[in-house]
Specification:
This protein is α+β, with helices and mostly antiparallel strands. The protein has 18 helices and eleven strands. It has three domains: 124 residues, no CATH class; 179 residues, no CATH class; 149 residues, Beta-Lactamase (2-Layer Sandwich). It is globular, with a radius of gyration of 24 Å.
Amino acid sequence: MPRPARLFAGEQLRHLRASVGLNQAAMAARLGVSVSYLSQLESGARPLTPSVTAALRRHHPVALAGIEDAAPALRLAALTNALADPLLPASPSPDATARFAEERPDIADRFIALHGAMRAAEERLQMVEESLAAGDGGRRPWEAVRDWFHLGGNYVDALDRAAEELADTLSLHVRDVTDPAWAPAMAGAQMRLGIALRDCGIHVATDHKQSALAAFDGQTLTLGAMVPEESRTFLLAHRLTATLFADRIEEIVADAPLPNDAARNLLRIGLANYAAGALVMPYAAFRRAAREMRHDIDRLCRQFGVSFEQACHRLSTLQRPGAEGIPFYFCRVDMAGNITKRHSATRFQFARFGGACPLWIVHEAVAIPDRIVVQHAETPDGVRYVSMAKGLVKPSGSFTRTPRRYAVTLGCEAEHASDFVYADALDQSAPAIPIGVSCRLCPRDDCDQRAFPPADRGISVDPHARGIVPYRVV
């Protein structure tokens, strides 16, 4: 007797949890599973089990009925996505895929589960390999927090929705940049943030001798005199959300599997930063404007009164279930090539340790500040990306202090190029630039830019032949 077909409904489960306002810990308790197991259910790595289905039927019968009615379509979508993985041979035709999903749902579900497990194992293996290559015995606090955001899709629903409601309360509405009242409106937005802080019993002051961005002593938020306007607004929003959403932030931190207090404190800061970004760039308004402008960063900056980096980062967080934005990858790279901030809602992967691929456009952007550069690139798994990068300089306010120089980059898979204004500058019919994660992980055996051999491959050295790279990868 064939086994009953299993149902993968991660997106629907996330949407249900968000609609009833539960965090993962509360939803896991309601379903009788652990938080980590619920996370796997929501990511689509595991199917709904009979016990989970029974709990859903008891607590959310209408939602479960909708999921079960949509089961064939969900299965076909998941199977099509798994079969399209570039690491697999050519996909069967859409008709053949649909017929297989309908006639053998049990095997289709097992294939979907295997594919999810393969991808999860691949990501864990990369973390281990890079950690070993770097001689690192374990994750440091900032790495643990970075991975927490990454594994959560860089989207925190409870904070995002709360910040959007607060933005509406404070009337932080978006204005058309052609409106003559736009500039004073943005100044008024900053004023309203300041008023809201005073309502919370927090005083705002400026220290003309202070070189740091901000300091808070429990009553007074002191901002440095050199803080630019958009950063000032963001710091006000950070302190406001850290105060108003303190209980929500503590619930999230309590649920997070972090190794120590340092990591938990870093997560508290990161969550308040996330909420601040969601406050000054409210989800629905920002997503709508981004679509209308084809994700033109400079236009978004003017409309929302934010910095280039803030707008790029916010675009990478637009992953609300049922209202997703275009999946982007985003990162920040310093002059030495260190990746200091990163997130990918795409299949694009970053080096966790050591340098990134030297052919990646972001390195050129660091060297040429205030100019946007674009690139059409292909990773070793065959996926093509269109990307833009811009070098930025943060003044130090003093000749004796070196200004901060770095670059930010934002990219999406080439299939979204029509919605990404920067792709207009690229000839996508031309060969894509072959890039990798890092030399230690890149499988390409014919790259003239290679700095190190792959960690999992051997080399052959011919003392009688001299090439650009003094060895051959075998």
